[in-house]
Amino acid sequence: MSSSDFSGDSIVDPGNNNNIKTIVKCNFPPYGRDFIGRKPTGRFSNGKVPSDLIETIVKCNFPPYGRDFTGRKPTGRFSNGRVPSDLIAESVGVKNILPAYLDPSLKVQDLLTGVSFASGGTGYDPLTPQVVSVLSLSDQLDLFKKYLSKINAAVGEARTATILSKSIYIVCLGSDDIANTYYSTPLRRPQYDIPAYTDLMIKSASSFFQELYDLGARRIGILSLPAIGCVPSQRTLNGGIDRGCSDNANQAASLFNSKLTAQIDAFNKRLPEARLVYLDIYNTLLSLIQNPSQYGLEVVNKGCCGTGNIEVSILCTRHSPGTCKDPSKYLFWDSYHPTEKAYKVLVPLVFDKQVHKFF
């Protein structure tokens, strides 16, 4: 495989939000504290995120994000270290750190081996990125087109086609649609019930997959929605006094996932060259929550940052009281995003077992 490219939300955003006007950022400690160099990178975790292992308020380019990243500084990754985009790229032998496409220091060689277009806070619903001023799927497609033009100018049309044919493209988003746009705000509920809203999401997803295919992407991995009702913030907001998992959010995610698998099957039957692969994060995350000791984890119902119940992005800072000393014991870094330790468990379970389906 020659490269890996990612589109999506904060789970695979390695710092694109650092370079746009949004408050959805995490390029500050304690994010990234377990990343290479122990520095925040903009990844929404304490370390790597999935895109690595295989101006808005939505940022994390400040401590404590990135405290375990290389250099111990925030990079814009929503974690303490590396995120899934880093870990997936590493697992397929491309590179250890997958850079953000909007990183101004990118070189041609970085482009040839893959980048991430993901933007924390985005979603399949076109309204979701508008609410927090982050990159929409349409914006990410425009960046992908510019990326292809740059590669073509550097190595020529023939080699660009070869790189595309051998690359894996990973799509990871949808959680913000359910958790934020639907359940945490009144923006969509007056118009849609959950079956209708997940139909809206699927329509957008299908259009996005088709456009990726039309641009030359053939091997496309699509992550399911996780058990979003079990992330700490959703437990706090919708889990009652005992902070249990939100059944409504989990049921919505399950419904979307069932529709997503049907769409993927239809694409593969209609387009013989397509290799769209469903990557199940829902049941895998539930397994970690239900059997933490099996995976070397201890705390699964709150994050490491601050109280762990609600802090995320600008609410998670180096001054947040109560931040844990050892995030490797935690499933979640902040109230929404896993730790690098959790990603290192999740990526092999979700991605590595399915990699043969891309070929």
UniProtKB/TrEMBL annotation:
Q: Give the SUPFAM superfamilies listed for this entry.
A: SGNH hydrolase (SSF52266)
Q: Return any one Pfam family short name.
A: Lipase_GDSL
Task: List the CDD domains hit by this protein, alphabetically.
Answer: SGNH_plant_lipase_like (cd01837)
State the GO CC annotations.
extracellular region
MF annotations from Gene Ontology: hydrolase activity, acting on ester bonds
Q: Which InterPro entries match?
A: GDSL, GDSL_lipolytic_enzyme, SGNH_hydro_sf, SGNH_plant_lipase-like
Of which family is this protein a member? Belongs to the 'GDSL' lipolytic enzyme family.
Under the heading PANTHER family, the entry gives: GDSL ESTERASE/LIPASE EXL3, GDSL-LIKE LIPASE_ACYLHYDROLASE FAMILY PROTEIN, EXPRESSED
Q: What protein name does the entry list?
A: GDSL esterase/lipase EXL3
